Amino acid sequence: MNIVTAKEMYVWDRQAMEEAGIDGKILMENAGRAVAQNVEKLVDKRQRILVLIGAGNNGGDGFVIARTLLNKGYTVRAVQVVPDEKIKGDALAHKHMFLASNYQLEHLEKLLDLFQSIDHSDVVIDSMLGIGVEGRLRSPIDQVVEYLNQSKCLKIAVDIPSGVPADEGVTDFSGLKVDHTFTIAAPKISMFIEKTAPYFGEWEVVEIGLPTAKLKKAKRKLWEKRDVAATFPRRNAYAHKGVHGKALFVGGSFSMPGSIAMAARAGLRSGAGLATVATVESAWPSVAAHIPEATYTRVEEEAGSMVGVIDSGIEGYDAIAIGMGMGRKEGAEAMLRNVLEKSTCPVLIDADGLYHAKQLLDEVSVRNAPVILTPHPGEMAHLLGIKVPELLARPFEWSQRLASERGVYVVLKGPATIITTPEGTQYVETSGNAGLAKGGSGDVLSGILLAMIMQTSSVADALCNGCFLHGKTAERLTEDSHSQVDLLATDVVEGLSQTLRTFSG
Prior knowledge:
Blueprint: H1 6-19, H2 24-42, E1 48-53, H3 56-71, E2 75-80, H4 89-100, E3 105-107, H5 111-119, E4 123-127, H6 141-150, E5 154-158, E6 180-184, E7 202-206, E8 220-222, H7 225-231, E9 246-250, H8 257-269, E10 274-280, H9 284-290, E11 295-302, E12 305-310, E13 319-322, H10 330-342, E14 347-349, H11 352-357, H12 361-365, E15 371-373, H13 377-384, H14 388-393, H15 395-406, E16 409-412, E17 417-420, E18 426-429, H16 441-455, H17 459-480, H18 489-503
Parallel strand pairs: 1-2, 1-4, 2-3, 4-5, 5-6, 6-7, 8-18, 9-10, 9-13, 10-11, 13-14, 14-15, 15-16
Antiparallel strand pairs: 11-12, 16-17, 17-18
Helix pairs in contact: 2-3, 2-4, 3-4, 5-6, 8-9, 8-16, 8-18, 16-17, 16-18, 17-18
């Protein structure tokens, strides 16, 4: 499923009408009916519905929704919140259909009267403003939105809540916070931005009959369960440990042995055939106690932290993960440099490795084999040399810039994880919950991702599926046996087996 900007959505509409010959009034009818059908699933006929109708396509959808629900016997009041001259084109045609159906249309004349209507409604459907809004709301819509935000009624938005930007990069806005959003044709970027996502509530895409085969595809896609089913690695009946990859996990220190242990254990749980842990000698006893299946190779240490290269070299591995618990001593940077220069397999860099990677981006850029960076927002901002709020305002743009300029895969972790390829294609994976907001979760994800990379021909598919496996395991555990408060990273590792039963062969 594509994720679109406002501009891309307008292009789709134009292609449908001008190139495919679909009348705009038909698309509007389809949109309104699709939203109305979804409203019926949430609302019963005893509840009082108020439809607030503005200008443009969003307002036109509102006329169709109100007419459709009235036709089906719902109690609906329709209020036009903009002057008559603002209703034009296809929206005006549907306004005429609404009135010709012998239904009553009210107009916003006094805000107090509208506020009383809101107070006497169980459900308010917002079709006031669509994706073309720029800047802060103006009177009287700003006052309507402010009043609605304090109301206890069920609030449903058509396409996008009024006042909320469709694109990333907008931080100064006033918008309506709704319980449900039925968005038209495709999700909008702002549904995945930290500042704007909470305004949408639960959201669902409604199909309106656009000619999908003809539409210009966006470079952003939502990774869905059907994508997982189509790309998840399957085991051959004649498989042996060698064909599922030999992984090297580099990291750990005397004071942080758990990071590398969790990563390696997660990698083996996720299907890696063999795992070697490269760590300091003082950390190995703790690591070995948690993952007896892994072999060990020693790294020079100073005061419990790694400062040198791996004793046995780095040849013969199918993928390397580096950074978890390795520390920030200067010698650790030399270790990362050595791995990047000497290895010929995919290298995943996480945690402390990302701290050192900032100084080695030139080395990263010239590498022939894939490099995967897996930062959380703080680490990503450090890599880019910007502030975290600046990153969070434009995570798609910054991720694409880093991936394209440096030729790397970027996994920007968060409630909506953004996976970006060196070509600039982006995927959003939304599984998981707040139970993952705990130390060690990123280490576990790194192990899963490395295992997926070794079992899948497409690095992008591997990263998307690894994020899905990680998040879905947390979701299942907090449904069955844990809360989001007590869930530990080690619980996720041990919970992988049940999730894998669903998707692996």
